[in-house]
């Protein structure tokens, strides 16, 4: 037990914390959120003033850094969630603060390298963002799980509401106040020092004052894997399917607004006659107003979800946030103070959805796998953040600074329609918040809609701007369209490649039917990528295409991968397996390993030097190919890692 933690009386179970410990939990949540918010808010200013990133690349580079940080955080923090059920939450919280301390120390080094060598310091800055994101997210996730351990159905809305209140206070209001220092001499350096100091303080407070409540869960070879138990819980309860779909869009709210609203202010600062540090401070004030709306709305939503269906609460909050995003996308000037109104709407909607998701997850989750359930929710939210930030960065550079907000609004509206569909089909809660019926809902429609969203966003934007009717892409550069489609093709290829290891690790056999669907979406985006290259970029001019391939021979790698992908797509149906024969079909589809390797190399050679995203994708491909090779050689990776 950590030093100074209050021990329970002999012979009694630990069921609650002392008032002092509750105050420390709320304080730690505040500083954890503050570290996460500062690392995001200061990023656009650093890339612009310290690392000298060109204006036309700011959106993509900022998005790439956030995507890399989220991808690494998904893996690490998701694993921490599983691990916390075995070793306790407090150890992971302390570890999270230590990781944040290391990240803050590296950030100060990257600042000096950036001042001396410009963009050469980006490598260290990537590492900084990864460490700060992993550390801060681990702290916040495990504090939520720790409170879930001690809560009951009666007090859970109040406790989770308090936790969300403090998290939002630290991540918006407090961060907005701290960011005002950026407009003063030496202010940026002080802001970058703050995560180091609060990280050390957080580690000491955790080590000395917190203790675990839930007993560690022993494991044996006969136990069902926690991820399989998570899958069983989610697939048996439509509310959890809605909750995870909502998490996909909700977790990205503060990141999207902090990142792209700051970029928007900086991008127009010269036009309105203000400095870029002032623009950064102004953006922080507006995000602070959003946080104020969240803080004011949390008690109201807490009362609402105690009296009404969780499904209704998710639908109402998502629709309000969606309307706020779409309204925000209609403003031309971010320095117009009326933008506070849609930001307030987003904040109120975010508060309702976030509190409801926290309460519902703990309500439905069995205690032995609560950490795994919370970690799974973080995983889905992280994937959503990756997709939304990646798309938002492309849209910001190619279509304008307001495009990411329209993107968020349309996505939230989609999940709102899913909530309405559940209610219309009689899937709702009783007055004591139990599910009325045990009806199961197939995930295929939701997977299909999610995978199709990147194309729908691109097509919808084209129709809205009149690109198709005018016979051109208008303001959207062809290079943007081409890279956007290619990136999504590679993303779905990696997801498809990863699904079999996940299936083997967890024992969830039903993942197989989704793997084929994801693979076909990878082929669809690859077709769109190639069509964009030969039609939009070169207008079917073979001579110009050959000249471009001669200048950029890595294009041949992409074409080779596409050629190998065609027979895989056309033989994916069950009827083709029977016609070809199982062994021959498996041998043919083993080409997916070669395809992923070729695309990874193509992606790296096509990227600019500021973009670290291709290397993370390539690392993921290497890990997955190593796994398959080890299994093919007769090794047992699962047993070696003790996760099977």
Automatic annotation (TrEMBL):
Cofactor binding, note field: Binds 1 FMN per subunit.
UniProt cross-references to PROSITE patterns, sorted A to Z: MFS
Boundaries of every Major facilitator superfamily (MFS) profile domain copy: 25-427
Protein topology in the membrane: Multi-pass membrane protein
Cofactor: FMN; heme b
Superkingdom to which the source organism belongs: Bacteria
Compartment list: Cell membrane; Membrane
A Gene Ontology biological process term: protein repair
Primary location group: membrane
Oligomeric and partner information: Heterodimer of a catalytic subunit (MsrP) and a heme-binding subunit (MsrQ).
Function summary: Part of the MsrPQ system that repairs oxidized periplasmic proteins containing methionine sulfoxide residues (Met-O), using respiratory chain electrons. Thus protects these proteins from oxidative-stress damage caused by reactive species of oxygen and chlorine generated by the host defense mechanisms. MsrPQ is essential for the maintenance of envelope integrity under bleach stress, rescuing a wide series of structurally unrelated periplasmic proteins from methionine oxidation.
Protein name: Protein-methionine-sulfoxide reductase heme-binding subunit MsrQ
Organism of derivation: Paramagnetospirillum kuznetsovii
Record lineage: Bacteria, Pseudomonadati, Pseudomonadota, Alphaproteobacteria, Rhodospirillales
């Amino acid at each position: 037990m950590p030093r100074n933690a209050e021990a329970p009386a002999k012979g009694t179970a630990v069921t609650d914390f002392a008032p002092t410990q509750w105050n420390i939990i709320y304080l730690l949540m505040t500083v954890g959120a503050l570290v996460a918010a500062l690392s995001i808010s200061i990023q656009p200013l650093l890339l612009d003033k310290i690392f000298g990133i060109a204006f036309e690349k700011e959106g993509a580079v900022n998005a790439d850094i956030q995507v890399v940080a989220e991808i690494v955080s998904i893996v690490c923090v998701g694993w921490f969630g599983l691990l916390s059920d075995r070793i306790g939450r407090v150890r992971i919280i302390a570890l999270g603060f230590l990781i944040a301390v290391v990240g803050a120390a590296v950030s100060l080094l990257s600042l000096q390298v950036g001042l001396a060598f410009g963009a050469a310091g980006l490598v260290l800055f990537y590492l900084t963002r990864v460490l700060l994101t992993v550390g801060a997210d681990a702290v916040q996730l495990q504090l939520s799980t720790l409170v879930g351990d001690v809560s009951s159905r009666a007090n859970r809305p109040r406790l989770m509401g308090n936790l969300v209140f403090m998290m939002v206070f630290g991540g918006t209001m407090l961060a907005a106040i701290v960011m005002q220092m950026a407009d003063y001499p030496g202010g940026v350096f002080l802001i970058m020092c703050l995560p180091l100091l609060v990280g050390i303080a957080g580690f000491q407070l955790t080590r000395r004052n917190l203790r675990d409540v839930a007993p560690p869960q022993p494991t044996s070879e006969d136990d069902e894997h926690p991820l399989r138990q998570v899958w069983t819980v989610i697939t048996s309860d439509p509310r959890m399917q809605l909750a995870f779909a909502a998490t996909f869009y909700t977790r990205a709210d503060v990141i999207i607004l902090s990142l792209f609203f700051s970029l928007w202010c900086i991008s127009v600062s010269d036009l309105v006659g203000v400095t870029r540090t002032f623009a950064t401070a102004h953006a922080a004030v507006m995000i602070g107003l959003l946080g104020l709306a969240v803080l004011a709305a949390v008690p109201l939503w807490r009362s609402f979800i105690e009296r009404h269906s969780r499904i209704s609460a998710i639908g109402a909050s998502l629709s309000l946030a969606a309307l706020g995003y779409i309204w925000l996308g209609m403003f031309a000037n971010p320095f117009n103070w009326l933008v506070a109104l849609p930001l307030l709407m987003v904040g109120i909607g975010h508060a309702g959805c976030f509190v409801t998701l926290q309460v519902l997850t703990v309500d439905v989750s069995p205690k032995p796998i609560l950490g795994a359930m919370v970690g799974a929710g973080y995983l889905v939210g992280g994937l959503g953040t990756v997709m939304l930030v990646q798309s938002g960065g492309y849209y910001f550079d190619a279509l304008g600074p307001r495009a990411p907000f329209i993107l968020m609004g349309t996505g939230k509206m989609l999940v709102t329609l899913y909530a309405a569909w559940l209610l219309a089909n009689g899937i709702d809660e009783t007055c004591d918040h139990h599910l009325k019926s045990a009806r199961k809902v197939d995930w295929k429609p939701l997977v299909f809609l999610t995978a199709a969203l990147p194309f729908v966003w691109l097509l919808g934007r084209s129709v809205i701007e009149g690109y198709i009717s005018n016979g051109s892409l208008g303001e959207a550069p062809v290079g943007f369209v081409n890279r956007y489609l290619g990136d999504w093709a590679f993303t779905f290829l990696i997801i498809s490649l990863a699904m079999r290891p996940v299936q083997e690790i967890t024992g969830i056999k039903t993942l197989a039917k989704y793997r084929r669907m994801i693979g076909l979406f990878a082929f669809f985006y690859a077709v769109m990528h190639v069509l964009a290259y030969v039609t939009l970029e070169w207008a079917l001019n073979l001579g110009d295409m050959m000249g471009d391939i001669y200048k950029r021979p890595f294009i041949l790698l992409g074409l080779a991968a596409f050629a190998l992908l065609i027979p895989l797509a056309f033989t994916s149906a069950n009827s083709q397996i029977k016609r070809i024969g199982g062994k021959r079909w498996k041998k043919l589809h083993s080409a997916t390993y070669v395809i992923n390797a070729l695309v990874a190399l193509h992606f790296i050679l096509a990227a600019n030097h500021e973009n670290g995203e291709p290397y993370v994708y390539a690392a993921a491909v290497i890990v997955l190919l190593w796994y398959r090779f080890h299994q093919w050689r007769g090794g047992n990776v699962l047993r070696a890692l003790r996760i099977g």
